[in-house]
């Protein structure tokens, strides 16, 4: 990250594809190997001294790994403290989002800035689009972004409502075993984006890697029952509980924390009647499609 802490705001990034500081925002910006590498400082045009940064790491993945493992040579606690770089609160921001981070949420603040980010890698391909690992350019926060891409010229009211319901439900629920929504945007555009805490993988990945065992089994059961209890209390049906939609984060004690994700099929109990979900995991009463009002039991 580049932090412009000068009183006169006399630092700027150059180069053709740079993502510069934005007026009104904190003057922090992510430096990557393909943009924002040209920096100018001083003078009225912020270019009295102009230099180019060459990153010693090759890929974004390396940068993320370096941040995560704190192998940053500028942040070695054994160093002379006078040599420490100024960090303020950015160290927290640079850490990946573990479990819910409600404090980070910028939801509901009218006129808030558009999230600016760079995608690092694809994590999963969904019904409407792609989930990618991404870095927030303005804060350095590593997160997951789900891009719901419109296929036609406009969203059908049903599609739009479904995506809106998914976003609003995730935003409304704060629970340690339910995926944390950081922000969303793009309601007027062809691509609606959800920003979520980044998880290490899904229960399906664990099963496919043949790493599922009794210990993980009892943990996932405990965590999912807690998540479903919270949803039932809030009169929400998830309707698509399955290994692909249960994400995990490895804890420092080599344990697994599971979170329920993908609220694409969720509905309030007062109106859930239709047959929705994934066939192999559907409760019999959902499959029946008899039009009766469904209860939270369909998720357990
Ligand atoms: N926050 C996240 N962190 C890490 N991986 C994620 C995250 N959200 C989704 N994924 C990955 O992307 C896949 C698809 O996301 P999901 O929300 O389930 O989309 P869909 O509605 O299309 O099923 C998941 O199965 C998971 O592998
Ligand atoms: Mg899914």
Automatic annotation (TrEMBL):
Signal peptide: none annotated. Keywords: ATP-binding, Kinase, Nucleotide-binding, Serine/threonine-protein kinase, Transferase. SUPFAM superfamilies: Protein kinase-like (PK-like) (SSF56112). The keyword Kinase applies. It catalyses: L-seryl-[protein] + ATP = O-phospho-L-seryl-[protein] + ADP + H(+); L-threonyl-[protein] + ATP = O-phospho-L-threonyl-[protein] + ADP + H(+). The keyword Manganese does not apply. Its EC number is 2.7.11.24. Belongs to the protein kinase superfamily. This is mitogen-activated protein kinase. It comes from Stereocaulon virgatum. The lineage of its organism: Eukaryota, Fungi, Dikarya, Ascomycota, Pezizomycotina.
């Amino acid at each position: 990250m580049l932090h412009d802490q000068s009183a006169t705001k006399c630092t700027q990034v150059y180069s053709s594809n740079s993502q510069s500081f934005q007026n009104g925002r904190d003057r922090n910006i992510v430096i990557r190997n393909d943009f924002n590498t040209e920096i100018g400082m001083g003078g009225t045009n912020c270019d009295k001294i102009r230099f180019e940064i060459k990153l010693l790491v090759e890929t974004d993945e390396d940068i993320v790994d370096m941040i995560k493992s704190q192998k940053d040579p500028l942040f070695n606690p054994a160093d002379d403290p006078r040599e420490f770089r100024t960090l303020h609160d950015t160290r927290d921001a640079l850490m990946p989002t573990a479990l819910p981070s409600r404090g980070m949420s910028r939801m509901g603040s009218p006129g808030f800035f558009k999230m600016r980010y760079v995608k690092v890698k694809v994590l999963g391909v969904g019904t409407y689009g792609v989930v990618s690992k991404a870095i927030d350019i303005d804060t350095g926060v590593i997160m997951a972004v789900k891009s719901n891409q419109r296929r036609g010229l406009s969203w059908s009211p049903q599609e739009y409502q479904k995506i809106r319901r998914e976003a609003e439900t995730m935003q409304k629920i704060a629970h340690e075993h339910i995926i944390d929504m950081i922000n969303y945007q793009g309601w007027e555009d062809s691509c609606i984006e959800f920003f979520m805490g980044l998880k290490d993988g899904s229960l399906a990945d664990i099963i496919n890697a043949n790493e599922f065992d009794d210990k993980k089994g009892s943990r996932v059961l405990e965590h999912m029952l807690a998540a479903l209890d919270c949803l039932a209390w809030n009169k929400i049906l998830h309707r698509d509980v399955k290994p692909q939609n249960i994400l995990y984060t490895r804890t420092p004690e080599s344990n697994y924390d599971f979170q329920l994700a993908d609220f694409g099929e969720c509905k309030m109990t007062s109106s859930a009647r239709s047959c929705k979900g994934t066939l192999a995991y559907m409760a019999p009463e959902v499959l029946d499609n008899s039009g009766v009002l469904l209860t939270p039991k369909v998720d357990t």
